[in-house]
## 1
Amino acid sequence: MIRISGLRHGVLDILSLLVPAGNTAVIGPNGSGKTTLLRLLAGMEEPVQGSITIGGEPGGTLTVGWVHEFPGRNALFSRVRDEIASPLQFRHLECDEILKKVEEISGLLGISPLLDREPESLSGGEQVLVALATAMVSNPGILVLDEWDSHLDAHTTAVLQEHLHRTGVRWKVQCTQDMDLAASADTVLFLSGGQVLACGPPGEVFSEHLGSCWYPPSWRWREWSSSLTGQR
Amino acid sequence: MELFFDRAAVSRGGPDIRVSGRFGPGINLVSGRVGSGKSTVAAMAAGLLAPGEGAVIRQGIRSSMISFQFPEWQVTGNTLREEIKSWGADEGEILLRAGLVGREGDDPLSLCRGELKRLVLSCIFGKAWDLLILDEPFGALDCSGKREICRWIEARRSSIVVLCTHEQRFLPRTDFLWEFQGHDLVCRGTMPAALGDWELAPPFVKALLSRGIVPHNISEDDLAEAACRIHG
């Protein structure tokens, strides 16, 4: 369980919040505090006031996999292979083991052909895939994805979601503007103006937004389609 | 007024990306998967990338602008005020348009990505351009922001608008559809005739077509109208 108590930090003002383990989608208007919350969960910032625990441990004590909303900004090395290997190299793992893990994660994400490319030469979407591989290569306890999907097409996002489901990472927190993606999460956390507007299963959260642009398009289209089938 | 790709081809470390055809006034949607070459086409159209083969020829185009996928690439000012001034735009008007009134003293890079995208797009749409190239303009915007940008794009139909995006849910009413077949960009034609050939068409468009219902276009309003036709 992610437990937040009396949090005041930047725009965020959250009195009390419990988020179960699993895949959590954080949604909300631009500037509502989504990225700030993700940075706190990843231990990249300390709360000015209040506390955050993840599985009973203080935020920042778990191994964190992080995909930045500007993936190119995090790249340190001039070859994709070295970039993905970097978290393991910094931990001084054996070269053979690093090589094996890099090959595995690259194969899983379908980016083996990119390993000898320069990160700068990649498309925005490919940069995200490399950032995701780099985040996942060290088997993190929590995976934090900050609008990683905004550079990906729907097909690639769907494929990667499948991979993410199979990673076995206990806590996956992703902020997204794709309500169909959010609808596939276990929990949806809706922030607005730094406060929690709703938190719960997707059906519960989105039922309050029927008719607004926050309602998942695929649900709306499915409802249209099923009513068509009903007419036949 | 015309942007002519005369058998233009370029390599960026992967397979050659090839484009042939004429982009005229109207909204030209360039559709394709991650890494297919959308940003490369945008860069060639903007004159930022010279083709290795063939040529990109501008006829009658007196002014052009590109909106990059990553808005921070376009920022030069230390504050929003400086940034807006650098565009020669009216500060009050741009802040209002971007929904950032009161933030004029902030560092643009302190904005969240959606806010930064709105700022840059507001500056770009604050002026008239003969050729307007938009590389993933919807990335990181919330749903109301995406709707707003669709309206802005639709108001520029008398310019040549090259809209490179993988967005499938919030799209402007489009005149010409271009799509990558592998790494070759081909013109599918005008709307709505082009819809039947659109391989990466949004699922709901495909669902409508499979039932013999052809939307007039691909905007939210057009799809809603087509859905109403389902229901008679």
Note: DSSP finds nine helices and ten strands in chain A.
## 2
Amino acid sequence: MPELSPCHHPLYQLRRTPFHARTSQLCLPHNWRRWGGCLAVGSYDLGLDREYWAIRNHAALIDISPLIKYEITGRDAARLLHRLTPRDIHKMQVGQVYYTGWCDDDGKLLDDGTVTRIGEQNFRLTAAEPQYRWLAMNAVGMQVQVTELTEQMAALSLQGPKSRTILNLACEQPVDALKYFRMAFNRIAGKAVSVSRTGYTGDLGYEIWMDAGDALVIWDALVAAGHDYGITPTGILAMDMARVEAGLFMLDVDYTPASHAWIPGQRSSPYEMGLGWTVNLDKQGYFVGRRALEREHREGSSWKLVGLEIDWEGLEREYAAVGMPPQVPASAVRGSIPVYAGPRQVGYASTSTWSPVLKKYVALVHLQQPFFAPGTKVEIEVTVEHHRRKSPATVVTLPFYDPEWKKK
Amino acid sequence: MPGLHPAGQLRPAIVKQLDLARHGLATSAADAAYVSALADGGSLQLVSSANDVATIAAIRRLSPRDAGRWPEFVGFMNRAAAFLDAAYSTTMPRLPKVELRADGLPLASLALKLRRMGGKDMFRVMRSLSMSAVEFTEEWFESEPLNAAIAGVAIHGVTLGSMSAGTGFTLIHNWLNRGGLAHRTAPGGPQGLTDALVKAVHANGGEIRTDADVAQILVEHQRVIGVRLASGEEIKASTVVSSADPRRTLLGLVGAPELPPEFVWQTQSIRMRGSVAKLFVQTDGRHGLPAGTVAIAPTLKYLERAYDSTKYGEMSQDPYLEVTTSGADVMIHFQFATYALRNADWGLMRPELEKRAIDTLTLHFPAFKGSIQSVQSITPVDLEQTWGLTEGDLNHGQLILDQIFFMRPLPGWSNHRTPIDGLYLCGSGLHGGGGISGTPGRNAARAVLRG
């Protein structure tokens, strides 16, 4: 047996998710991406259309197991999350899910995720990045246990207008009564799961949390139940387009967590990221970043994340000048693009995408005060035949796409 | 039970500012004797003045060269202590953020003061701070008993050995607090100092409550609002000044949940690690110990070996002792009795502690054992539980180079303030602290007055 070279050492290899036996059979173009140290399917086809339209028209099945997950239990479990996040965790009901960011003491975002109140003294926290040290630092003097569940717990996201119908077929209990951002226990193929009405697409959708050992049985049961409704295994690239349409941002793409920032200017506050609604300054007691956030609330933010719709006629004009029809990217673009007001750069786009459902070219943009006001006319850089030009665009409120069935 | 410290003097400027002489504080005796018991059964008696004839004669018997250098050594130590005194009187800037308006003037005046004290000395003092007691003393003297006697004062009260870096600094620190090698006991002892301070507080309209354990410092929106006593009584206050050690004040009395996580982590990281035990022995008076400060510090290696045991969670087999007497009462300072014993606890080790202290002292003063009538001992765990000293650390945080000056009690928090508005720290864990000097208290008072 030849000796393994260092790069084949298990430590250097991306982990496989509990669904790998299924996803790897289906991932025909071998379009793998790296997500949280795992192999994640980028797309199951060479193009994204089929998977994107599954999200918007019927049902997409997405392996989201690489999400970092923690179980937080004990007498002070609520107290720890109340201190960690700017949301009022003490007001949370059992079965409720909160989306939230959390900050350092300068009020700058470290990460974002969901908090689920599983029981009175039992919470689940998801994160994009490992947070164990930060949780432990915040738990000093509290009676609380933090357990990482990332590898023990598998998760699937079922997103799209038909997701409820499919779940009703697959689950022991119907999910009709499950409200937006609520969680309930259920069973699929006889296996215990928890189902939350959450997602990263801005459509009707659910996330299904299960023991890693039950992953394949549950995958098979969902695929079987969803067959007649067009259930489609979907990769993270189609989800990336959908999440921009939904106005949802991504760590390290749309903001730099304070713990990764090289310079102070790279950091972002929840207010700057449009998460002001999650900052509850009326809540009782200290929480990390409270003073800084109070100050920012008082004095106003100098930046804000907003939506930008690129004006189609303007784009057409730029391309027409060289004798071409307008070109749009085939998937979401994770790259900084300058945004101008007259000659002056006033911000940048961090993710931009063609929105097939809206038939619009849209972007998540960070704009300086006062240019973030909805309706403001700005210009965004477009590269037309290797030349940098500017195309007119309009600031809009997020999300770009908000179907009525999302919360119904 | 007598106090933990055999002696204690506030800085002369503080005595004057508080007008303590008027409130009955006696002045300390000058030129106290420091007696080092030697391995051969003899002893070396030192008075820390440049021209003490008996001291120079005693050193000459060990080395004529060393006797010649003694006056220069004493002069240097006094100047080095004066440097430190000047630094201690200046509130340190909150590095890395120096606020020119608040910190600039005091720092500039400190720099000027140090410069006036002499550029050549300043360089030598800076160099001495990071040296070990062995390196430092061997640069001055060739006689082992003399070097070891001095090194005993360098490691006194700290969890460091004679070969540890930074014991040059602790030597100067202890020299400053004692006014030399020996403790200078004033008539009335440390109790006299407490009495005078109490009178000064009363004379200024203050009230002191004893038997009033503070159970919690009350905080609302990161601002102090008062304290809650163990009895349940609440006292409202917009300013609270704590002389308890920083870790006990912040993590114990305020509580980590009220404080920013990075700050909590830093506070947890303060190295405490007490390794001092104390014994109070009542004798029939025939203990045979000389007056003054008696040290069992026969060789430099003896001190290092005594320290070695702390690394392994053990109590020194042959401890470094410092002994003072008051009539028939003998007070023994025992080093090293590590707070964190391995595979043992202080409940069971107490008899062994007493045995080792008595046997070691009896080895040098044979009459001692027979004169004993009663023994009372204080272990590091007693210091923590009864005196509230975290890990039994008398200095409220080890006196090591990364925990002094602008890094005491924490980097960035050297101005007596805390993340809780209105809560100030004033104890030994602050710049100038370790030992009785009054300096951290005076600096804290200034910070409170500045608001």
Note: Chain A has a mean pLDDT of 96.
## 3
Amino acid sequence: MSRPAPSPSAATLPVSLAANPTLSSWLEFSAEGQVTVRPGKVEIGQGIVTALAQIAADELDVDIARIRMVRASTAASPNEGVTSGSLSIQQSGRALRYVCAEVRQIFLEVAADRLGVEKTSLSVEDGTISGPGNVRTSYWELAGAVALERDATPGIVPKLATERRLAGDSVGRIDIPDKVFARPRFIQDSSLPAALHGRVLRPEHSRARLIELNEDGARAVPGLVAIVRDGSFAGVVSETENGAEAALNALRKGATWSEDEILPDENDLAAFLKSQPLESVVIDTRAASTRGEGKRTIRRQYTRPYIAHASIAPSCAMAQWSGDKVHVWTHSQGVYLLRADLALLLKLPAENITVEHLEGAGCYGHNAADDVALDAVLLAKVAGGRPVRVQWSRADEMSQTPFGAAMAIEIAADLDAGGEVLHWHHQLWSNGHAARPGRAAQPALLAGFELANPFPWMISTNPPQANGGGADRNAVPLYDFPSWQIESHRLLTMPVRTSALRTLGAQGNVFAIESFLDEIAAERGEDPVAFRLRLLNDDRARDVIRAAAERAKWKPAQRPGIGHGIGFARYKNMGAYCAAVAEVEGDRDIRVRKLTLAVDVGEAINPDGVINQIEGGAIQATSWVLKERVRFDRQRITSTTWSDYPILRFSEVPEVEVELIRRPELDPVGAGEAAHGPVTAAIANAVFDCLGVRIRDLPMTRERLIAAMELTP
Amino acid sequence: MPHVRFRLNGVEMDVDADTDRSLLDILRGQLGMIGPHFGCGAGECGACNVIVGDRAMSSCDMPLWSVADKDITTPEGLGSANAPHPLQRAFIAEQALQCGYCVSGILMSAAALLKRNPTPSSDEVKEALDRNLCRCGSHNRMVRAVLRAAAEMAAP
């Protein structure tokens, strides 16, 4: 079969492979007929491990049941940084595809040599290599003879889309049976022999200092092994989990904390965000060749609150010291990055620290996984070589974990006499959306800020636009306006701890852009779908909008109390395309009845996996929009329970329909963050369609609805 | 220490512990069961649900003394890979989860529902699961899975 010549881009290795070129670090074959695959990306509830197994099995021509996926560990796995940004299919998947393609060729060369036939005459079927005259061998037979301790070669050409058998199939997820049969898979359910239990005392007041600690009560609790105190960091180690809880409660009663008022006014976030010291950056500009005459300028402000990860499981970790070496079990998104921060903190060479991944509950960004890992490491120091398991409380999970940053977004548009946009000015005010471990000269872990010799409080920053940006993610419109200016103002103070939460700034920016666009369309009397299609010149963008609109029978006839709205974005302006149509019912409360989405991720390795991610993103976004807002007074985060931080319940969940546009010939991109922005905007626009009011401040609670109605003439 | 007797997944148990401790703490700590999950410790999320008698209840805020002589079912008692409960088969068939941490409690609520109402409507399933939280947004798949299991159980 003739193959296309390698394209120039194929002559360089995929990014993860360039960083980890040794083939044997990715793959291993056993004589018993198994392939061990070691991705550097981790399962965080998104089903990535199954999709990666599909890619490997496909490229190698083996049954997927032969693939054994190994959890990432700094002891053996390739370093693929962090599992974030919807990049795992792009990075790990692409690397594995090229590794497997090359390894297959290496096996065929050795086989051809042994069998005395031409390599091109050989074929592979479930690992068995056969050729003319019934000659045959297998990966398993040759496993010992093939050396994979060599670097990947640039220019390898993987299979064509049409030759793949597994990619594009909705293979069942590998991890699901364990989870429905209650077999241990989560770190919370894993145990180590002779493990002790640790708990850390955290203040109710934000960033309070521990002034005094009476340890008597805790010392009297049966099973206590040790109390650890270093500055404002304090914790207990006990023989039992129950004992650790009891000792922690006793310690809490003996603690005196500083009580500063460092938090902003939760009811005026925009004023707070705009009044802080800022670093301002012009993200993008476009200058019109000829600028029409602006007749008028309209200006709108949109806000979103701080949003909590609010994972169903509290974060958990285990650590065990052996001399000056420590082994850490974690549900962190980046084992190497966590190791780098631990090395800085412990002043140890990285080689002394092994960080191994175990699955946690759903991870939607930089949560407390890394923080609790350091807690476990610090408490395990006094455990005499026994492992220590630490689990956070629900209250700490809801209040100490970094939040998704609050945002204020202001867009001003200059319109001509016909209401066409001449110039678009988008400004946003927000804390940075990233303060992940392992990226800076100082650690980003919570306990590190609490020690007697503390590391400085890390102020969040933003990834560069080339990596998709942070607060400014999706701030540059895809619409063909003649000119624009996009500015990001990053806060240089950070009273509320923020870091990466699903979509970073994209949810806020898409909410603002798509709401504003809807206002302009409404003023012009133009259909919002037609308006968008007219302003977009990317066919894939137009296709998802058309597909969502058609599937939702846009625009359904007006009915009292029911409204419809559309939202669209291409995640990071370079990832998945997604359009959403929302149907809402509005009265005193807003209820989202139905979401209809269309998505284009290029090649969908596991179509049902993509749909599952889009459905989940759509429902989570609905929850953010209708309900979620981190609450605080001037001293403390007050939303520390599910009653204070309600999320969407079964009875409130909308029907969700997803249409997947198949493009097997295009490079695959991730799906986990594509839906949030479009769904947010679609709901906002549907509320306007239904009630005639624009809600520009999230969440869209009853109070906000009433406030918006009062403002509407 | 006082003893509390109950039946756990059909097996007679005699537990020697402080009877004010939560059932979840006893199940996970003393009895080594990992099916019921700790989520909030306040009976607000349903991750720790077990079936007591014929009702799904949170075990994190249920004192041990209150289950004396009761029948307790945990996710471990629902079925196994060799003998799966129709709900477990249905959750796999519908790929009805993302992270799966909440699923053990949801299976308990669903199993209790199907016992008292073998042919629930979609709204009845949602109502039965309304006290269980799912953060990944797998709700609709879970509802489909419960309806699928009900249909399978009703089939002759």
Note: Chain B touches chain A through 55 residues (CB under 8 Å).
